[in-house]
C-alpha cells in the first residue's frame, strides 16, 4: 500500500455538483468503472470554483483545534451529560494516538484529527493548483475569477500551515527548529518526506500570502465573511507573525485589518429592550433583565435585539473577518454538539460545562455582555461550589451557550476563524513588545468598552511588560474562549505574563491539576500512524 501523510493522497470524484476527495487506502491504484479522472474535472472556471467550494472550503474545519484546546486547558469541565468522553485528554494524558490529534472518535463524532485534517486541505489545494494549469481563461472576467480562485486556495493553504506549525513545532520563534512536513505540490504516492525546519515552512507560507494579498481585496458584503479575502490574508499574516515573534509585521497586518476591513468591534448595546403595547401600556419601562420575556428576546429568537448575541447566532456578520459557513443542513461538523448533545440548555445533555474560573471572570465583570452571551439562562450555578467535593462538581451546572445554533438546528453554527477583536489583541501585544505600554492599554480598553453595556469598562495602566502581557492574556481568555486560542496562548505567552493554566480544583470529579509552563505537552505529538507510514517523520520529544 502506498501512503503519504497518513494516506491523504486521494481519488477524485465529482458528486452532487460538489468536488469531494476520499481516502481509498489499499484501493488507491484501482480505477473504478465510471470514475471521473482529474483531467476531466479541471476543464473550466466553473469546475475550478466547484473544487474550491466543495473540496477546499468544505474540508477546512478547525473544530478539532477548538475542542482540543477547550478540553485540555482551563476552558471547560465535565458536564452533567458526560459519559466520560475525553476525560483522559482533560487530565492531560496525551500521546501520538490521541483521537483529536491523530483522528478517531471524538464525542461520538468521527474526527480527522488536527494533523490529518490540515494536510487533507493542503493536499486538495495542491491538486486544485495543479489542475488549474489545464485551464485557459477565455475572457478578462474569467481570468479575474481564475486568479481569485487560486489566491483564495493559496491563502487557505497558508492558514493550514500556520495551524500545523503552531501545534506541532516545538518553538515557532526559532527559524531553525523542526517544523512540519512541507508539501509544495502533489507528491508521488510512495514519497516519504521528512519534516523540515521552520524557516522552510515560513518561506512557503509567506509566498502564498504575498501572492494572495496582491490579488484579493477586502470584502464589503455580509456573505464576504465566508470567503478568503484580503482581510483573511492579513489576519493570517498578523497571527502568524505574532506566533513566530515578528511583532513589527504582526502590528502592520493587524493594523491594516482594523483600518481597512470596513468592520468595527461589535457593541454590547443595545442591551435592554422597551415594552410594547402587548405587554404593558408603559412604553418607557425596560423589560427586567433575566425575566422570561427578556430571555425570549435575547436568547429565544433567530435574531436578538443585542448585536453581540447576533454575532454568535449567525444572524449578522458583526466584526467577523472570516468564518466557515455551516448551513442548517449541509457539510461540516456541528460545533455545538461538542459541548451540548442536543441543544445549549440544561436539558440538552451537556457534555461539558464552562470551567469555573473562566465562568467567574465573565460573570463578575460589571456590565459585561459576555455574562449573558456565553452562558445559557438555564444554568444552575452552585453558590457553594468552592466547598463542594470533587465528586459533586457536576451539580455546578454552567451551560455553554456561545454556540446557540441556527433556526431549527440548535447545535449548528458558523465557525468563527478570525474576528476583529483578535486583531486588537495582536496589535496590543506588539505594542508591548515595542515598549508602548500606554498604547497597548488603550487597545485593550477599546475591546472592553465594546463588550460593556454599562459603560463600566476598566483597564488599569500597565506598569511593566509582565503586567501588560498578563492583562492581554486575561482578556484573550475571556473574549476568545472556545475559539481555539487558549492552548497556544499559554504555550507562547504564559511565561512572559507570569501566569499558568488556571483550572479550579473542582473542574473534574477527581482533584484537578494544571499543566505547568514549558511542559512538553504544549507541543503536540506527530500521529503514530504518520510515524509508522513515514519513518522519515521525526517524533517530537516526550512522546
Overall geometry: globular
Oligomeric status? single chain
User: How much is the average pLDDT?
Assistant: 89
- What strand order characterises the main sheet? 1-2
Major beta sheet summary: 2 strands, antiparallel
Helix content: 40-55%
Helix-strand string: EEHHHEHHEEHHEEHHHHHEEHHEHHHHH
Alpha-carbon Rg, integer:
23 Å
Detail the poorly predicted runs.
Answer: 1-36, 277-284
Strand content: 5-15%
DSSP, total strands: 10
Look at the helices and sheets and give the structural class.
Answer: mainly alpha
Distance between the termini: 26 Å
What's the number of helices?
A: 19
How would you explain this protein's 3D organization?
Helix 16 packs parallel to helix 17 (465-479). This protein has helices at residues 38-41, 45-59, 63-72, 87-90, 99-102, 114-132, 140-168, 198-215, 230-243, 247-260, 292-298, 307-313, 356-364, 370-373, 420-433, 437-450, 465-479, 486-497, 528-533; strands spanning 11-15, 18-22, 76-78, 104-106, 109-111, 178-181, 195-197, 320-324, 352-354, 415-419. The longest helix has 29 residues, at 140-168. Strand 1 and strand 2 (18-22) form a beta hairpin. It starts with 10 loop residues before the first strand and ends in a 10-residue tail after the last helix. It is globular. The strands form five sheets. The chain has a two-stranded antiparallel ribbon. A two-stranded antiparallel sheet has the order 3-9. A two-stranded antiparallel sheet has the order 4-5. The model is unreliable at 1-36 and 277-284 (pLDDT under 50). The chain is mainly alpha-helical and 543 residues long.
Amino acid at each position: 500500500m502506498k501512503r503519504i501523510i497518513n494516506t491523504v493522497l486521494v481519488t477524485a470524484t465529482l458528486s452532487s455538483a460538489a468536488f469531494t476527495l476520499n481516502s481509498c487506502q489499499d484501493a488507491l491504484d484501482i480505477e473504478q468503472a465510471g470514475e471521473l479522472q482529474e483531467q476531466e474535472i479541471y476543464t473550466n472556471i466553473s469546475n475550478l470554483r466547484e473544487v474550491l467550494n466543495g473540496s477546499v472550503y468544505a474540508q477546512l474545519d478547525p473544530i478539532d483545534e477548538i475542542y482540543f484546546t477547550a478540553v485540555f486547558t482551563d476552558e471547560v469541565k465535565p458536564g452533567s451529560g458526560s459519559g466520560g468522553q475525553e476525560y483522559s485528554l482533560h487530565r492531560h494524558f496525551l500521546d501520538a494516538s490521541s483521537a483529536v490529534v491523530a483522528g478517531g472518535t471524538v464525542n461520538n463524532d468521527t474526527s480527522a484529527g488536527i494533523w490529518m485534517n490540515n494536510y487533507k486541505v493542503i493536499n486538495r489545494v495542491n491538486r486544485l493548483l495543479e489542475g488549474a494549469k489545464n485551464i485557459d481563461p477565455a475572457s478578462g472576467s474569467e481570468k479575474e475569477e481564475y486568479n481569485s480562485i487560486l489566491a483564495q486556495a493559496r491563502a487557505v493553504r497558508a492558514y493550514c500551515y500556520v495551524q500545523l506549525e503552531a501545534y506541532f513545532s516545538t518553538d515557532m520563534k526559532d527559524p531553525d527548529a523542526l517544523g512540519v512536513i512541507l508539501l509544495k505540490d502533489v507528491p508521488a504516492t510512495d514519497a516519504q518526506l521528512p519534516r523540515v525546519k521552520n524557516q522552510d515552512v515560513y518561506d512557503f507560507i509567506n509566498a502564498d500570502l504575498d501572492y494572495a494579498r496582491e490579488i484579493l481585496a477586502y470584502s464589503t458584503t455580509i456573505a464576504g465573511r465566508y470567503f478568503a479575502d484580503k482581510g483573511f490574508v492579513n489576519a493570517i499574516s498578523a497571527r502568524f507573525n505574532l506566533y513566530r515573534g515578528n511583532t513589527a509585521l504582526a502590528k502592520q497586518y493587524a493594523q491594516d485589518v482594523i483600518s481597512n476591513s470596513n468592520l468595527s468591534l461589535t457593541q454590547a448595546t443595545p442591551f435592554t429592550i422597551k415594552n410594547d403595547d402587548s405587554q404593558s401600556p408603559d412604553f418607557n419601562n425596560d423589560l427586567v433583565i433575566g425575566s422570561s420575556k427578556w430571555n425570549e428576546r435575547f436568547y429565544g429568537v433567530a435574531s436578538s435585539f443585542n448585536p453581540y448575541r447576533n454575532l454568535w447566532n449567525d444572524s449578522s456578520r458583526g466584526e467577523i473577518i472570516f468564518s466557515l459557513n455551516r448551513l442548517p443542513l449541509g457539510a461540516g461538523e456541528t460545533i455545538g454538539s461538542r459541548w451540548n448533545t442536543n441543544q445549549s440548555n440544561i436539558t440538552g445533555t451537556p457534555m461539558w460545562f464552562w470551567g469555573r474560573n473562566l465562568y467567574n471572570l465573565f460573570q463578575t465583570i460589571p456590565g459585561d455582555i459576555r455574562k449573558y452571551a456565553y452562558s445559557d439562562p438555564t444554568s444552575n450555578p452552585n453558590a457553594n461550589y468552592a466547598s463542594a467535593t470533587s465528586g459533586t462538581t457536576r451539580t455546578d451546572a454552567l451551560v455553554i451557550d456561545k454556540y446557540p445554533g441556527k433556526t431549527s438546528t440548535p447545535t449548528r453554527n458558523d465557525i468563527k476563524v478570525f474576528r476583529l477583536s483578535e486583531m486588537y489583541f495582536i496589535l496590543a501585544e506588539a505594542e508591548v513588545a515595542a515598549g508602548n505600554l500606554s498604547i497597548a492599554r488603550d487597545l485593550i480598553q477599546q475591546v472592553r468598552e465594546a463588550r460593556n453595556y454599562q459603560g463600566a469598562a476598566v483597564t488599569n495602566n500597565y506598569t511593566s511588560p509582565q503586567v501588560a502581557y498578563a492583562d492581554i492574556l486575561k482578556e484573550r481568555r475571556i473574549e476568545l474562549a472556545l475559539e481555539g486560542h487558549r492552548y497556544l496562548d499559554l504555550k507562547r505567552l504564559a511565561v512572559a505574563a507570569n501566569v499558568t493554566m488556571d483550572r479550579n480544583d473542582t473542574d473534574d470529579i477527581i482533584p484537578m491539576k494544571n499543566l505547568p509552563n514549558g511542559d512538553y505537552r504544549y507541543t503536540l505529538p506527530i500521529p503514530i500512524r504518520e510515524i509508522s507510514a513515514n519513518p522519515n517523520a521525526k517524533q517530537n520529544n516526550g512522546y
